[in-house]
Structure formats: C-alpha cells, structure tokens
Design a protein that fits this description.
InterPro entries: NAD(P)-bd_dom_sf (IPR036291), Sc_DH/Rdtase_CS (IPR020904), SDR_fam (IPR002347). Belongs to the short-chain dehydrogenases/reductases (SDR) family. This is NAD(P)-binding protein. Keywords: NADP, Oxidoreductase. It is built from nine helices and ten strands. The radius of gyration is 24 Å and the shape is globular. It has one domain (9-321): NAD(P)-binding Rossmann-like Domain (Rossmann fold, 3-Layer(aba) Sandwich). The strands form two sheets. An eight-stranded mixed β-sheet has the order 3-2-1-4-5-6-7-10, sandwiched between helices. A two-stranded antiparallel sheet has the order 8-9. The protein is α/β, with parallel strands linked by helices. The protein has helices spanning 9-12, 43-54, 66-80, 95-108, 147-166, 207-223, 249-255, 263-275, 323-368, and strands spanning 34-38, 58-63, 85-89, 116-119, 190-194, 233-239, 283-290, 292-294, 300-302, 313-317. The longest helix is centred in the C-terminal third of the chain and has 46 residues, at 323-368. Helix 2 (43-54) packs parallel to helix 3 (66-80) and helix 2 (43-54) packs across helix 8 (263-275). It binds nicotinamide-adenine-dinucleotide (NAD). Nicotinamide-adenine-dinucleotide is lined by residues 38-39, 41-45, 63-65, 90-93, 120-123, 151, 155, 194, 196, 239, 241-242, 244-247.
C-alpha cells in the first residue's frame, strides 16, 4: 500500500509549510499592492479596507451598498490620508458588473495590475425555503429561493474566474513561490477565499448557506492543486460566528451566553495571507480568542483560569481534508484505472471505440425519428 509520504504532493503543487500562528502580520509588506475586495462595504471587508489603507495599499471595494461603500472609502481616506481607495458598485451575481469592477480596478491601479483578490461578498439565507416545501402540491409549485447560492457560490466563481485572468497579467509581479524572499517580493498574485466554519460542519436552519460554504471549501481544495500553474497562490479563511452585521438577531439569540469572535482577528488572518508572499495553499479558522491546551489523549481542553499557562489565540490552522488522506485516495483510484487501461491495451481501446460510434449512430437515429 503506498503511503502519503511516498508522494510529496506539497512540493509538487508548491504548497507552503504550516503557518506560524503566533506570528503577527507585517503590514509593511501590503504597502505597494493593489487589492480588490468584493462585498467590501461592511463587516470584514470594511475591516480589511481600513487596515490595508493605513498600510498604504491601493484598495478597491465593490459592493451593492453604494451609500455605505462611498462613505466608508471617503472616511477612511480622510483618516489615513490614503488617496488610493475606491468604491465601485458591483453586484457579484451579475457577470458584467464584476467584469466592470475588475476593469475599473486595473484603471485606478498605480502599476496597472491587481495583486490580491478577496472573494468576500456573502449573505445568509434570508428565506430558508429549501426545507419548507410548502405549496408543492398546488398547480404551479414554486421553486426554492436560491439567492444565497447566487451570491456565495456563483458570485465567488465569477470572482475566481476573473482573478485567474487578471492576476497572471499583473505587470511587474512575481509568480507565487513559497520559497521567495518576502523582503524583496512585495507584489505577487494572490486569491483569498472566504468560507466559514459552516463550510466544514453543518449549520442547521441555514442549509443553503452551509452548502454554499462547503462548495467554497471544495473550490479552494481544487484550486490549490492547480493555481500554481498560473503563478497564483490561493488561501482560505473559515470564520466561526464573528460580530458583524451578517449575524442576524435570531442568530445572536441562539449564540447568547456563548463565545463570539471579533472581526479584527479575521482581518489579522487576512493580512497575514495578503502580506506574506510565501503563504500558499493554507487555510485557517478564526473564532473567539481562547486559551486551550492539548491533554494527554490529544484532546483540546479550555484553560479557564487566567493563571494557567499559554496564550489566548483566535486563529487556528485548518487541516481538514488535507492532501495526506484525500489525495492519496484519488491517486490510488487513478492508479487502478490506469492499470485497467494498460491490461486492456489496444484491443480494449478498439472495442470501446466501436461501442462509442454505435452509440452516436443510435442517438442520431433516435433524434431524427423525433
Ligand atoms: N461574520 C460571520 O460570523 C461570518 C462567519 C463565517 C463566514 N463569514 C463570511 O464572511 C464574508 C463577509 O461577511 P461579513 O461578516 O463581513 O458580513 P457583512 O454582512 O457585514 O458584509 C457582507 C457584504 O457583502 C455585501 N453583499 C451582499 N450581497 C452582495 C452582492 N450581490 N454583490 C456585492 N456585494 C454584496 C453586503 O452589502 C455587505 O457589504 C461572507 O462571505 C460571510 O459569509 C462571516
């Protein structure tokens, strides 16, 4: 049985080693970058804008909330003195709207390119009808409302598609390389995806939201094994409940008495990813700041008393579905399939070709017969 160690996939796909979680981000590495953020008018997006504006980056936000976006850019510009902050209307569910956002970003970029794209826009399910199939026995059964998939999945796929076009065309940037010297390379090509803890575990009553966020984890896992071919690095953040406007009153009631995270910890994690050109193919979860320790059984215990040793932390590296398990499985399947093909040889190929031609003729005859 082959072992994961026999296949050093991490180096083949240029995945960087595990993060040093205790190290703070170096904001000076963000300075010369042009960064595009979808859904940047509120919550995390607003937090990224404020921090990266203060660090001297060119930041372009696209959002459907024109009033909030305009005001945020104006106020942050005044406070930081950064004149390279821009708001453009963008509805991520509308392809032309996103195309225009990327074109506008290139236009306002001092170096004519985009260094980082943050696919951040997201909504929760305003109308969770998928599990309430009322009216289906009527004469015109209504379809479920899939708006959350439009924003959280279709929107993110549009953003990714555009990012993979614009990032490799970023003039003067270096292709992503985990072994680069971060003191020399400030401008590279980076896509940061936003999923959620609901991308790795269920979130009852928000089925479509959790489905969309699982899909973003899937997107990330696929991209990180192919993005290096475009010289693009991809990373992922999966926040737990964090205090932003997306958390509804009902959500806050359910969480009452528990722990909720702070947006600045998500901004810190994102800054780490954006700033450091060596980080590629890594994912973190961000939650409330807690002090925990591993017991002798390898389980995590909460350190409740202040005097107990250890630092509080909000950012944790996420190893879920890592290559060690999943990619070995894929490799084994492919190996077996290739072996079958080898054994069947040219005779097998010839038989299958005849079958395929017969299939084509049959379909054609059926179509012609109406
Ligand atoms: N806050 C949390 O607890 C939490 C947890 C896990 C994941 N997330 C994810 O983080 C991301 C940011 O969320 P947030 O907490 O900052 O929420 P938020 O509601 O404060 O911000 C989301 C922004 O997206 C914008 N937006 C919505 N639909 C859009 C569209 N069609 N086109 C463009 N922009 C649109 C909104 O106007 C808003 O400005 C989302 O993808 C969210 O799912 C948040």
């Amino acid at each position: 049985m082959p072992r994961a160690a026999d296949y050093p996939l991490e180096s083949a796909i240029r995945q960087s080693p595990p993060l040093n979680i205790n190290k703070a981000a170096d904001d000076t590495w963000v300075r010369d970058k042009t960064i595009v953020i979808t859904g940047g008018a509120s919550g995390f997006g607003a937090g990224y804008l404020k921090r990266w504006a203060a660090a001297g980056a060119t930041v372009v936000i696209g959002d459907i909330d024109v009033e909030k976006g305009d005001r945020l850019v104006r106020d942050t510009g005044k406070r930081t003195g950064n004149k390279n902050l821009h708001f453009f209307y963008c509805d991520v569910t509308d392809w032309q709207s996103q195309v225009q956002l990327f074109k506008d970003a290139v236009k306002v970029s001092a170096h004519g390119g985009i260094d980082t794209v943050v696919a951040n826009a997201g909504i929760t399910d305003p109308d969770p009808t998928i599990e309430k199939p009322e009216g289906l026995d009527g004469p015109n059964p209504p379809p479920p409302n899939l708006a959350v998939l439009d924003v959280n999945l279709k929107g993110v796929l549009y953003t990714t598609h555009l990012a993979l076009f614009y990032l490799p065309r970023n003039p003067g940037s270096s292709p992503a390389n985990p072994n680069c010297d971060p003191f020399r390379i400030h401008r590279d090509r980076h896509l940061l995806l936003l999923s959620s803890m609901a991308g790795i575990w269920p979130l009852p009553a928000q089925t479509l939201y959790a489905t969309s966020k699982h899909a973003v984890v899937g997107l990330y896992r696929n991209l990180r094994s192919s993005c290096f071919m475009h010289g693009v690095r991809v990373n992922l953040i999966c926040p737990y409940f964090i205090d932003t406007p997306i958390v509804t009153t009902a959500g806050r009631m359910i969480l009452a008495g528990g722990a909720v995270g702070k947006p600045e910890d998500v901004v810190e994690a994102a800054t780490r990813f954006v700033a450091d050109p060596r980080i590629a193919g890594r994912a973190v979860i961000v939650g409330p700041k807690l002090k925990v320790a591993q017991n002798e059984n390898g389980e995590w215990d909460l350190m409740e008393r202040e005097e107990e040793s250890g630092e509080k932390q909000a950012i944790w590296e996420l190893y879920a579905h890592d290559f060690e398990d999943s990619e070995l499985f894929t490799r084994n399947i492919i190996r077996i399939m290739n072996r079958v093909t080898e054994i069947r040889g040219w005779a097998g190929w010839f038989q299958d070709m005849i079958k395929a031609i017969k299939h084509g003729i049959r379909i054609r005859l059926l179509q012609e017969a109406g």
